[in-house]
Write a structure and sequence with these properties.
single chain, alpha+beta, Alpha-Beta Plaits, 4-stranded antiparallel sheet, 2 helices, 4 strands, about 40% strand
C-alpha cells in the first residue's frame, strides 16, 4: 500500500478552483483505492490531501515514469491555487494499527 500525502495552505477562497485542478483530466490512476481532502476546522484554507493506492513501490515508480509529464502538468495547474506547501511525499505503509480491543 502506498500513501501520497500533501498538507497545503490554499490561497484565500481558492478551494473550488484547487479541487477542479486536483481532479486532472484523465481520471484517477489505476490502483487508487480512495482519496481524501480534509480541511482544518480552524482555517478553511489549510487542506490535507491524501490518496491510498494498492501499489508496491515498484508500481509507483513505474506509474510515475509513465505518467510524469501529465502528472507534472496537473500539479502545475493546481499549484496556481496554493499559497504554501508544508509537506508532500509518497509513503509506503509499513504497519496497520489494529483497533480491536
Amino acid at each position: 500500500m502506498i500513501v501520497m500525502f500533501t498538507a497545503r495552505r490554499l490561497k484565500p477562497g481558492a478551494w473550488e478552483q484547487f479541487r477542479q485542478a486536483w481532479e486532472g483530466e484523465g481520471g484517477p490512476p489505476a490502483g487508487l483505492q480512495r482519496a481524501y481532502h480534509a480541511r482544518n476546522i480552524r482555517d478553511e484554507d489549510e487542506i490535507v490531501s491524501f490518496g491510498l493506492f494498492d501499489w508496491t513501490v515498484d508500481d509507483y515508480r513505474r506509474w510515475r515514469e509513465e505518467a510524469d509529464a501529465d502528472e507534472t502538468r496537473r500539479v502545475d495547474r493546481l499549484s496556481a491555487f496554493v499559497q504554501n506547501e508544508y509537506v508532500s511525499g509518497v509513503y509506503k505503509v509499513i504497519d496497520r494499527a489494529s483497533l480491536d480491543a
